[in-house]
Specification:
6-stranded mixed beta sheet; elongated; about 30% helix; alpha/beta; 6-stranded parallel beta sheet
Amino acid sequence: MIHWLETASQHRNAGKPFAIATVVGAVAPTSAKPGAKAIITSEGELIGWIGGGCAQEVVIEEALECMQTGQVRLIRLSPDVVPSPNDSVKILAMKCESGGTLEVHIEPVLPKTKMLVFGASEVGLSLVKLASELDYDITLLAPGIVSGDVPEGVSIIDNFDDVPKVDANLRSVAVVATQGSGDARALQGAIASEAKYITMVTSSRKAAKLFESLEKRGVSGEALKRIKVPAGLDIKAETPAEIAVSVLAEIIQASRTGNMAHTAAQSKPEADAEKVKDPVCEMIIDPRTAAGTSEYQGTTYHFCSLYCLETFEQEPEKYAVAAEA
């Protein structure tokens, strides 16, 4: 049996996103107790123990969302859906026969954000220095760059042609900070990188002219629409260092609020599309692991437990109508 901690270590070393789910509260009867842990991979696999089938499916769903947003989440699974005075707690109905309540803390563990900086302008170099302090995985692309100009650990590519493709499952951002020195080639390189968030240090007016020229040369208009210009939050920045601060602040804001065109778990597992709702307890379940099924008026219903199956078969018309609502 593979321990959850061993799997977490393997994923961490491989740079793969995952989430840690910890039971922090339980009201009997529940099979899991406070302190029980599991990890959820970006593929939707749960390794460890945080309770029975109903709880597992919900925790997986919530964990995948946490990996998308990068935000910690505390959920309460309970048959009694009572508004919580604590806005940080998400209340979810769990109507299984156990009748117990679980509180689960879900924490995403994400790899370093990949940052590509195009250009060795003062803004570009200032951004690299700031981002290195925040532990970004940085690659600087700049013709003629000298390694002594950048912090240790920053990868250097001395051209705009050998652009690394980013992993679709990882956080990634490309910043074009050429400021008049190779703008077009750098921007094309940023698009080619397939970074999830692309921004450019320039004025809106200059960007419009550049985009028009690139579109005439065959660059996709849809790709150009994804580029955020001008880069940075409006903090009335004037110096290159201040502009770099505004750019990094905007990247952090986009990441924290889920507005970056990126998800750590880029898409939910294919099997997720096959998941269905138990018409009795309303829990999301995988049909392949359902405790049982029942046919009613040509429709197959799946159940998380025999209790739900038996309850349905006593009044199928009641639950079938609710399921279709």
